[in-house]
Write a structure and sequence with these properties.
Elements (H helix, E strand, L loop, with lengths): L9 H14 L2 H8 L10 H13 L3 H14 L4 H13 L3 H8 L2 H4 L5 H12 L3 H14 L2 H9 L5 H5 L6
Helix pairs in contact: 1-2, 1-3, 2-3, 3-4, 4-5, 5-6, 5-8, 6-8, 8-9, 9-10
Length: 168
Amino acid sequence: MKMGQLEPPDTHFLSGAEGWMELGDYDSALAELELISPDYRRHFDVLQVRWHIHNRMQDWDRCLNISLQMIEAQPEMPQGWINHGNALFYLERFEEAFNLLVPMLKRFPHDEAIPYNLACYKCQSGAIQEAREWLECALKVGDSKRVKNMAVNDPDLTPLWEHGVKIK
């Protein structure tokens, strides 16, 4: 279901939810989202913020559900698919996460987050060589400097560095 743009006061409630989330007050952030007009609570932007709040709360099952709603709301946007893959990943369903995102490479060939996340999934499932190849793909697709900076500080990729993998 395609929705129009959010408008005030809903945009204010969404901003308020983001602010509470940044402050670590997840209950207030979720309460702020409940102030959004019922017709717009399933708006992609609202779902995205809701997903991030539950992600920070480490409520992976809820993240899984929300990401499915995101895909339903806007299947042409990569973020719903990426969030769904990450929710599966956090539930340690690495193979499912990988199998979900691989076909998304063809749909969203310029989104560096997809090969980057595939690298994380493979890394955490112990497939170090494949993880390195996916990370190299992310470096080619995206801003290599930004991807490198993200990768070296990402705990999901630590096994790469422990195996002596260097990124160019």
